[in-house]
Amino acid sequence: MKSQFPASKGAAAYSKSLQWKMSWPWTIFWALIAIELILWHQESQILINILFWTISITIALNAIYLGFEAKVLAAFFRPYPKDAGEVTNPNWRLVEFTGWGGDEPMGYFIPAKGISKGLILYIHGYSSSMARAENRITHLSNQGFDVAGIDMRGHGRCSLNKDWTLLKVAADIEAFLDTIICEYKELPRVHFYGHSMGGFLTLRLSSHKSGWWKDQLDSIILESAVSSIPEIIKLRVGSMWNLGRPLIRLIIRTEMKRIHPDLPITFWNAKIPQIGLPGIPVLTLQSKNDSALGRTHYNLIKKHIPDDGENQFHLISDLEHTTTLDSMTRREILEKWLIKRS
After folding, report:
1. Which CATH architecture has domain 93-228+271-340?
2. Which of 28, 72, 122, 315 is most enclosed, with most CB atoms within 10 A?
3. Which positions ≥6 away from 227 have C-beta within 8 Å?
4. 3-class DSSP state for residue 334?
5. pLDDT by residue (tens digit) across 37-60?
6. pTM to 2 decimals?
7. CB atoms within 10 A of CB 15
8. Per-domain residue ranges for the chain?
9. How high is the pLDDT of residue 212?
10. Strand 282-287 vs strand 312-316: parallel, antiparallel, or unpaired?
11. Does the structure show a pLDDT above 80 at 163?
12. Is 315 helix (H, G, I), strand (E, B) or coil?
């Protein structure tokens, strides 16, 4: 069954994106052209030379800027997924639903082994997919939970990659949850499990609850989670960050406003606590030697979410960042957490 996009709204942005509009380098460029055309009628070889070189320099500067802009936009608004792979568990069911802007991403549902104890929403990371996380998902199903999730836009079997943003993915997930409730006669207890960038989405969604799951969300599980988009930006651009920080910020801010005109959020406040704090129990599973993210994001989570009886934090030596490898320690900690909440 397809849902209409989405009944639940809270964590994302929902207005259609604005079409491309002329940026300030192009505006300056055409203004100079107009001025030079006026000067063209002046009978002066000097003015003609000035005109020629001004146009040439302006074109060169704009070409450099627009090339840099294209590189930044490609880095942050278009996903580059790895080979998606195929799910192998015969119990998987594909779920059709309508997501952000009327698009149709791809959703999955796998029932629990035995009597269901509730629903776990699995949110995979950047450059990953539901298929790449199948071992983790099968383990969750074997613990007695139904598991559902989507291939993010531009990942797995979902080819939607134009103007990619996490806010679109958040809206897709809300719409997917509106659809998946059709599997149940009674409202299930829900847990969110977010890996890497999926952890960032988990933090955002759980702190902006909506729809039928607003009062059903019991806990969230974060595995090697992202907690700060600014830190991700610095990691991606590398040495370019020190050279072009103001320009990078301007390009990203302008593009975000174009794609999501209804939500005043930028990459620079896209971190905890600004994106929100869950207010429900949190289990954090962190690779002790995370080769992808280090511990910066983990430390930020610990700074803003108290390490008390409700929340748990674990640094795991035998856990890698990738979901293609697993850890027995991770499984044991997770199983104890879920048993407590079954």
Report:
1. 3-Layer(aba) Sandwich (3.40)
2. 122
3. 199, 200, 203, 271, 272, 297, 298, 300, 301
4. helix
5. 665 665 566 766 777 677 778 777
6. 0.86
7. 12
8. 15-76+230-262, 93-228+271-340
9. 95
10. parallel
11. yes
12. strand
